Each structure stands twice: as C-alpha cells, then as structure tokens.
Amino acid sequence: MIIFPRAARHFALFLPLALLAHPLPAQDVAEERPASLQSEEETPWLYEGSNVPVDRAWLFGELDNGLRYAVRRNGVPPEQVSIRIRIDAGSLHERDEERGFAHLLEHLLFRESKYLGPAQAIPTWQRLGATFGSDTNAVTSPTQTVYKLDLPEANPAKLEESFKLLSGMVREPVINDANLAAEVPIVMAEKRERGGPAQRVGDARRATLFAGQRLAERSPIGTVETLSGAKADAVDAFHKRWYRPENAVIVVAGDADPVEFARLIEEYFNDWQGQGEGAEAPDFGDPVAPAGADAANPVGETAVLIEPDLPRSYTYAIMRPWRPVQDTIVYNEGLLMDALSQALINRRLEKRARGGGSFLYAQVQQDDVSRSADATFVNFAPLTDDWQAALKDVRSVIADALSSPPTAEEIAREVAEFDVAFKASVDEAPVAPGARLADNLVDAVDIRETTAAPETVLDVFRNMQERVTPAAILARTRALFEGDVIRSVYVTPSTGEAGEDDLRTALLEPVTADSSARLAASNISFEDLPPIGEPGVVAQSGPLGILGIEQVQFANGVRAMLWPNDAEPGRVAVKVRFGSGYRGFGDRDAPYVLLGEMALVGSGVGELGQEELDRIATGRKLGFDFKIDDAVFTFEAQTRGSDLADQLYLFAAKLGMPRWDPNPIIRAQAASRLAYESYATSPGGLLSRDLDYLLRDRDPRFATPTPEMMAQTTPEGFREVWEPLLAQGPVEVMIFGEFNRDETLEALRKTFGALPERSPIPAEAASRTPGFPSAGDTTVLKHRGDANQAAAVISWPSGGGVANIRESRQIEILTQLFMNRLMDEMRERAGASYAPQVSSDWPVDLEEGGTITAFAQLKPEDVPTFFAAAESIASDIANNPPSADELNRVTEPLRQLISRASTGNGFWMFQLEGATYDSRRVAVIRSLLNDYSQTTPEAMQALARRYLASRPGYRLAVIPEGQELAKVSTFRAQAVGR
C-alpha cells in the first residue's frame, strides 16, 4: 500500500454571496448500477492477494474488455472532478527504434483526435474552464503514461463532454505525417530545454547504476535520431500495441456520484477493443554483478563524470532485483521498519554535516526504481576535492548503524515523528484533494501495490510498534545494505581527482564505525524554556470586517488576525509578517540576503540550536519557513491546535531572543560557493541567478553573491546585519484554522504580546524601492551549456501597491491572453519553444516595482524570432481588441481557479496579509472574483496601450559562450558587466 511517496513511487468552506459566485450543487444522477462495478462482497481488483483493508471510499470495476477503473466521491475542492487515464506503457516498453515514442504519443493525443480538430485540445479545455499545464496535462515515465484532467465546475454536461473527448484522444488519435511534423519540433524543443550538464550527468548516472538493464538506455524523452526519424505508421503501431483496454486504468475522484463516473466510463470505453495483437511487457532486466565480482568484492560498474561547472557529488547504490510483492500488512510493516532505519541514519548524517563534517549533506534512501531494481542509494556532496575523506566519513556513520543497534530513545524519537505525520493524515483526510487521491491510486497501480485509507496506515503503524525493537531495526538496516552489486558515480569539476578503479578501491576499504554522530537522548521541554517577557496586554480588538475574522492589537504594537474555522480539520496556518524585507539591506549587505534565507532559521532561538530545535519538535507538528519579500520578512508554518502555542513561541523567540550559532552560516557559505558555478551551465540557470538583479536595474540587493563576495562574509557580519533587522518594523501575526480562540489569544499574550516594542524602520530603508532598467540595447548573458540552448526575456514595468490592485488583477488577464498567443506563435506554429511563459509581478507592499515579463527557452537562432513575436503580440493587443472567445479562454479558467482556491485558508491568508495595518486590503477582496474573470476587449486594449505599447520592453538574451552575436541575432548587444 502507498505509505510514503515512492520516487520511481480546498475545502468545503462557502463564502458570503457578496464575495464569490454561488457554488453549484454537486450533481447526483440516479442511474441503474453499472454491471461492471464490483460489489462489496467481491475482492476489488487492486486488492487481489492482499490482506490490507480495502479503502471503501473507492468503488472498483472491470469492463469485459479488461479495462479497470476506480471511482470515488470527493468534494475537495467543491465541484471539481479529477480524471486520470493510465496506460501501462512507458519508455521501457519501447523497442530500440521507438525510443521516445511513448512520450511523443502523449503529445499527439493532444494534437488531434476523433472529436478534436488539429491544435484544438488546449482551447477546448480552456473553454471548459481547465487551465492547460495544471488542470490538463500528461506525464510519461519509464513504466506508464498518465493523462490528467482536473475539471472545474463539473456539471453533467461538462462531464459527459470530457469523457467523450478523452475517449477520443486515447482510443482514436489522428496519427499522420502532418501531426508528426507539428509535434516532433515541440518534443525536440522540450528535449533541448532539458539538456546541458545536469542532463548529461543524469543520463550517465542512470547508465552506470542500471547497467545491463533497459532503464540504463531509455529516457522517456527519446533520442534525436528516433524522434527525427519517426514515421506515422511506426508511431501508430506503437499506439495499437500498447493503447488497449487491458492496459488501461481509469481513476476518477470528484464532487459527484461515483456511480455516474462508472456509467460514463462504461458508455465511452465499454466497446473499446484493441486492434491487432497486443504485446507482453518486455523483461526490464535485473542488476547483475559483472564477471569477477563476488561477496568479497561486490563493487561493479563505476563512473567518474567531469563537468567543470557542476559541484561535486557522489552516489553509490546497493542493487537488488525488483520483484512483485504480496502487498500484505506484514510487508508494509517491513517497509515502515525500513523507513525508520533510514530516518535514524539520515538524522545522524545530518548531525555530522552540521558539526563540521567533510560533506555538505548526505542521505540514505531505499527506492524501488521503475520496476527495475530494489536499491539503497547513498548520496553526498564532498566539501572539497578530498572525496575519499567524505566517503569514509559517510560510510563510518553507516557502519555504526550496521554494527550496533540504535538506542531505544533514538527509536522513540523517530517513531514519534512518524506517528504525528500519520495522525495528521487522518485528521486532514476530510480535506484531502481529489486530485491527490487519484494520483496516489495511479501510483499504487504502477508499483503493483494497493492503497490504504489514512486510518489503516496509522493502525498498522501503531499495532507494530511493540515489534520495533533495537534488534529489529538493526536487522532491517543490515538488509538495506545487502545486495548483488554495488555501483558508484562521482561527479567532479576537475580532471585527475579520481578514476574508476579509485572509486572501487575506496568502496572496498574497511572503515571504523563512528558512533559520535548518534544523537543525545535527553529530551527538551517547552516548559523549561525561558519566557519571552512579561505577558502583553490586549489594547483593542474587533472584527476585521470580513469572514468573521478578528483583529487584535497588543500594547507593544503587535497586531494579530484570528480566524478559527474547521475548513481544514487538524490544520492551523500561521504567518508572521515583520520588518522591512529587501528594503532593509544596504548595497554592502547584499551577500547576507542569501545567507539569511539559508541560515537564519538554523542559527537558532534562545537556548536552542539546530539540534535542540529538532529534538524539541519531536512528535510535534511544527514548522519554520522563512522568506524575504519586497517590503517584509515572513515566517510561516502549518501546525495543529495542540502545538500552536509552542509554534508561536518559536517564532516570537526568533524576534525577541535570537541565537547566533555560527555553524549554519559556515555551512551556508560552503553551499553557496559550491552551487555558484552551476548557474552558468544552462540558460535557465543564468536567469535564476541574474534575472531579478537585472530587472531591478542591477540593484545589488538582488544579486546572487559570487564566491568572492561570499568569502568576505563572516558569522560576526551576519549577526551585525540581521540582529537589527529582526528588531525593526511592525509585526502582524495571522492564525487561520482549527484552534481555540481564547487559548490562542493567551498564547499570543505570552509570546508576541511579550516582545519589547519594535524600533522603526529607518527612513532610508522605508523609502527604498527597486528600479527598472532602461530599454536600450539588448542585454546578453553567456552560458556554458549546450550550443543549441538559448533563452530570451522581454519585460515591461507596471506598478504596485493596494490602490491599483484591481488593475493588477486585470493585468493578470492580459498576461494570460499574451501567453496564449505566444504559445500559439512560438510552440504551435514555429515549434521553437516548448513552454513560453508570460507573468505579472505586482508588489502589493510597494507603490511601484511591478513587471510584465515574457520568457522562452529556444535555439540561439530563434532569439530574434521570440523578440519579434512578443513585440508584435503586444502591439497587436494595443491596436486591435481581442475577440470575445479569446477572452473567454482566459477568463473562464481564471474564474475557476479563483473559485477553487478561495475554499482554503491559505488563499485568504495571502489575500488579507497586511490588512491589520491597511484596511483597503479588506475592501478590495469583495471584487476579487469579478476582477479576475470579467473584462472587455476594450479594457484589455487600454491596458496593453498603457503597459506594453507606451515604451519598448527591456530585452535580455542568454546565448552560448563562443557564439558570435551576428550568428544569433542582428540586434545590438550590451554585455553584462559581472
């Protein structure tokens, strides 16, 4: 059964009518029960051979043609129905000359089919309210191809139409030369965008770790030769061989009668018959030790991969054959024991890394990979070129786990962590999204296991705990590190550091078990921690003015928003907004921005360092996410009512009694230095490094620090920069979810209400806003990746602030309209880019600084085409209003997106942040749905004239090193001086 995600393995809250449109009632259709539905007396097909209790929320059925299905009612989010069609064929099912065909077929099904004309799938689903890429998508893996639809506002007519369209796509796609000519360039663009050093390493690592197996040489994306040589009859033959009812599973979870789902499946798939002969799945092969390997020398294939721009990393794997299992309770108890064993080792490895070890990180993970291998992987990143020392350190920690059992205290700690996670799943089951439930069942089918209700998982775990002894964990740990062959891959930027024989020798060297990484057994209690200060006094309280939310102000100036509700059972969302955000940093402080994102939380609070924070959180649901925004810092966490007071203590202590442990800063410095050069390996990497910096007119605060800049930072400098920032500016605490109001108010008094009064944000920082670059010559960056990769960006300034936020929502419609046209031009017509994007960024906390940005990854020679297309689209919208149908393709998905998102606490927390200091944020909520979903062609034309046509866009090109600009473009170039 699915217990954890296996790697190769909203909420019914209705809002006032003044805010959002009336939800439609769930549709129940009283029909005769389909004959294919299995009764409760029958063993469902998913559970054959298993004694795992059946999750009776699912109904199962099997058609006479062999197609199997599972359906259930789920109202999260309301009115949505999630449909998954799984075909039991992926890249491992391809013949040599068919590599990439499974994924190519995925594209062709969206290109044209029985009920959909050429290139009509995307606009058709948009008219039905589904956003392409999120609500409508597909994925091809080595073992399966899955078509996904999350249909909003799924009334009977929409459901009927959707099943008809999906049946036509899966059963009768139009596979001809014209459609191949259109889709192959798009797949090639996708392949190109994935390329570069990281892809080369991934391919080489897979070839080494799975040597001799089909997985070693079959990536779902295929090869240039097989894709460019694809013929319609060959692709059609692949479709006929694998797209057959006996290879298909349909999963539906949604807000309607599941019997109606079963009826629709029967109506549109019952007469599906495979054409010609099907095929048996090929043998995926086993990991086999090479000649000469034995128990004394189990090391097989090794590889040293030299990539000058990638940081060092080392992987070794203990490989075992994968075999189907009887998915019984005993089997799952074993999986849970394995997971506990891995958690124990990983916690020790993390302690060793934190304490100044020779590696930045290390992790052990068992995985059943693509029904090809049962493997235990050990991954780590050496801090220096002394990879042997890092390997020895990692192996010594593992050797200790293999030689001596863990302590009962260590086991109890991990058991408590697992228990709280499983209990949270039970508490949150009523609001589990249907899309996730459907995906989980598809994953279970793929790995040939069952699925289980959260209550079953918790019961299995709790019933086995008396058998979770030190001796049992030791036995399971030893089994995880036994296998037929050991393989290893070392990635390094330098030649001469290692050879393949060196890797073999190092893995065979004996190591001494290192017990120093075992964790302290002593517990820490929140009751023993010092108070933040004297409990505060509530100065005033009252309604916020929406949804029954209460606002509270303490005498020290801290403000809070409280919204107790049961929309998400068992969950409490906490957000703390404070201080100045990016405004608080001077130019010289810029490197400490990144260090703060990486190390501020880890540097501790009060008496608690990193390890103590881990220990005090044992068996609790606590979080500590930190983010730097335009004008504010943010702490966030998902907790539960019983842990809320302690969660508030941790957040308040970070502001009132921060700790300044140097080890997290030193570790973050090392991580930053190791990662920096990898940015230059691809166009996307350079944009992630430099785009914010460039779009903010080269403001140093937004620059990614170079290794030289990072070398100038110190733990002392870190404290000097961050200590005043934690004490400055207003504080707003938002608490939404299932909690006791009075108890929470008392906890706030003792934590945030007890903080000293905040110092004001300095005037210089308060007025600091980022600029926007002048639209002169095109800025050019040079990457060191593949010669056929490039990227292009064009951006225009927009605005910011609350006063014009309604206009920002209309701009979102404009950007979606722009993106549809750019997709048509660059993907559908030219085949030049796989997924061009257009986005709007409107900073609500600043009065300016927003942008409208278009982006695409391309071939270098297509960069001018992108700029020409983007500028032409911008000009055309400004001069010619869009059609009503074109707008509907944008506004209907946006309306559906907002309606679904607005059923969750997170949505309202995002919309209302800052409202205790600015009441306008409450007022503009009431027009939210209309602003995102209602507009006119003339309004779009006016916005395009104002923001897109009033000035030239800022243009940025990322091209390969060594290429002459004349070969890429005729536009003038301005090199970036960094």
TrEMBL record:
Pfam families: Peptidase_M16 (PF00675), Peptidase_M16_C (PF05193). Residues 232-416, 731-890 form the Peptidase M16 C-terminal domain. The keyword Hydrolase applies. This is Insulinase family protein. The lineage of its organism: Bacteria, Pseudomonadati, Pseudomonadota, Alphaproteobacteria, Sphingomonadales. One of its GO terms (biological process) is proteolysis. GO terms for molecular function: metal ion binding; metallopeptidase activity. Keywords: Hydrolase, Metalloprotease, Protease, Signal, Zinc. InterPro entries: Metalloenz_LuxS/M16, Pept_M16_N, Peptidase_M16, Peptidase_M16_C. Belongs to the peptidase M16 family. Residues 77-215 form the Peptidase M16 N-terminal domain. Residues 1-26 form the signal peptide. It comes from the Bacteria.
